[in-house]
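Subject: sequence -> structure tokens, single chain

Hey, anyone have a minute? Need the predicted structure for the following. Not urgent.
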Amino acid sequence: MKYSVITKNIFKIIVLFVVGITGGIFADQILWPYFVERPLFLKYELEQRPIYLTERNEFFIQENTVLQEAIGRVNKVVVGIKTETKTKKILEGNGLVVTSDGLVVTLASLLPKDSKTTLYLDGKAVTPRLIQTRDDLALLRIEEENLPTVGFGDFDKLKLGQRVFSVGVIFKESVPQKIVNEGIIRYFDQDLSLIHTSILDKENLEGSVLFDVQGSVLGLNTVDQDGKITTIPIFKIKEFLGF
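Reply:
Had a minute. Here:
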């Protein structure tokens, strides 16, 4: 008799365990999805967790697609620059096409006096003419027409943490190649003279161009010895150009 009672109790426990598991699965897979769509529950904005995950994934996919499209639009406005100084030293850097009739802005440090400069426009080598320099900016002209251009960003609307990307040209075995990097705006100098980003790059990217994710120009980059990229803001470049 004793063993019979024990057996019955064990059987009851097993039955309760199976019923509990079955009930949990039924509630999670059938009852809960059904009730959250009822009017009584909708006013409390109850949502199933998989919806949030899907929305996040879709957001990241859309953001990355926007970035890729922006890079495609601005790719050709960034040019490579190679300069041979009078001491035969080779300087490499970048510039930005600012008008369709051949004006290019770059860093004055890439164009020391009495040097010979070659500009690489989408792989094509051309000889630029120096128009003017001021502070660390220089304006060049090349004899080209119908060049691609992009719009300038609004410096006053830039925010800390805003996503940005840079495009530059590096010379691998003397062949110009485009290079892209991305990051965020970390901070601004107190006098707003520089934009500091999280972008790090050991490549020679002096004069590369910083863009927002819409593809608008935010400025020209300088690179320190640690590879940290800071940017001369677009409002300074516009003042230099007289725009």
